[in-house]
Structure formats: C-alpha cells, structure tokens
Amino acid sequence: QVQLVESGGGLVQPGGSLRLACAASGNIFKLSVANWYRQAPGKQRELVASITNGGTTNYADSLEGRFTISRDNAKNTVYLQMSSLKPEDTAVYYCNMRWSFLRTYDYWGLGTQVTVSS
C-alpha cells in the first residue's frame, strides 16, 4: 500500500516563498509520475505541476514560471518550490502519484494548506 504525506504548507505573505514536500512509502515511486494539484475554496481541483520518473516537468500556464517541481528518487520525495506567491495561490495542495502497469494506479495525499495573505 502506497501512502503519501505532504508537508511544508502554512501562512505566507504575498511575494513570499514556500517549499512543499511529499514523501511516498513503498517501492514504486521511481516508476511513477508525481503531480501536485491544488483546490481553492469553491473551485475544482487543478493540476499545478508534474514530473515524470525521467525528470520531465510540466506546469500550469497560469503559474508564469513561479513554481518548480523536483524529485529525489533516493528519498522517495517530490517537492514543489513556490515563489512570488499571490493570494490566488491560496488552496489545499495535494500530492498525487500515478503509475501504470496494465492499468493506472492513482495515489493521493491528504493535502496541505497554503494560505497567502498579509
């Protein structure tokens, strides 16, 4: 059974930075695509960034280059470095791990709250 545990959320002022981390249990992390999603109050969950097991990254266009996703396969951990944060970045951020072998397996963390406010 795979478990994902997010950390690093909190309250930050506009223009500030945070780094989220997501630690995965199990032994399929290295084979998986890792994603960060977020869900703001009253809005649908949206994909923020993804990184393949080979290190190819993809980002939501709306981020304007402010976020960076990375992974450390030796630590089974994926990170999201967030800079120049804006109030509209306020949301619960979820870690997702997706692995495909004959079918697709999706695993989710419980989320970590990020609040950007002065």
Commentary on this structure:
A hairpin with a 6-residue loop joins β4 and β5. Helix content is 0%, strand content 54%. It has no helices and eleven strands.
Oligomer: single chain
Shape, per Cα inertia axes: globular
Helix content: under 10%
Mean pLDDT: 95
Structural class assignment: mainly beta
The main β sheet shows up as:
7 strands, mixed
N-end to C-end Cα span: 40 Å
Q: What percentage of the residues does DSSP assign to strands (E)?
A: over 45%
Q: What is the number of helices?
A: 0
Secondary-structure element sequence?
Answer: EEEEEEEEEEE
Radius of gyration: 14 Å
In terms of per-residue confidence, which ranges show pLDDT below 50 for 5 or more consecutive residues?
A: none
Count of strand segments: 11
